[in-house]
Amino acid sequence: MKKLFALLMFFILVIAYTAYAGNTAPYYESLEGIIDSENFEEEYSVLKNSFNVPKNVGDKISLDVICVLDSGNADLKLKNPSGEIAYSHNFSINDNQKINEEIKSEEGKWTLEIFISEETEGKYRVTMNNDKDEED
């Protein structure tokens, strides 16, 4: 009887672990663009785009930001579905770097805003994923 109980408990634990581990769905989304000062128009001084984060991606999301500017500066803001700023950074010509942050996950539409001026020129890539081992 004890062996049957132990075997039953083992299967319950395996099933519970499988159900828990299987709750995290893979997620990867990337946005990139080129900022060209020759085509600058004041009404487009804020570049807007969005990420759609599904359910079950886990508690944290990895945010990777690469911004390489040839001139000017860019103020990047990422807002969660509640409208709160989850990440913000001001990039300048001397601040060309790759940033990796871990942010709290929230299901829904995330908004990326990049504020630029007519002097701003360069490129950017913003990636959100839940795979810590994801490489570019």
List descriptors.
4-stranded antiparallel sheet; 15% helix; elongated
Provide structural commentary.
This protein is mainly beta. Helices cover 15% and strands 51% of the residues. The chain has 1 helix and 8 strands, in the order αββββββββ. The chain has one helix at residues 2-21; strands at residues 28-35, 46-53, 60-71, 73-79, 85-92, 97-104, 108-116, 121-129. Strands 1-8-3-6 form a 4-stranded antiparallel sheet, with no helix packed on it. A hairpin with a 5-residue loop joins strand 4 and strand 5. The longest helix has 20 residues, at 2-21. The radius of gyration is 21 Å and the shape is elongated. 18% of the residues are buried. The model has no long low-confidence stretch (mean pLDDT 83).
H/E series, N to C?
A: HEEEEEEEE
Q: Report the strand count.
A: 8
What structural class do helix, strand and pairing data support? mainly beta
Sheet with most strands = 4 strands, antiparallel
Average pLDDT value? 83
What portion of residues belong to β-strands? over 45%
Kindly report how far apart the N and C termini lie.
Answer: 54 Å
Widest beta sheet: strand line-up: 1-8-3-6
The rough form would be described as elongated
Helical stretch count?
A: 1
The radius of gyration computed from the alpha-carbon positions, rounded to a whole number of angstroms, is 21 Å
Percent helix: 10-25%
Given as residue ranges, the uncertain stretches (5+ residues, pLDDT < 50) are none
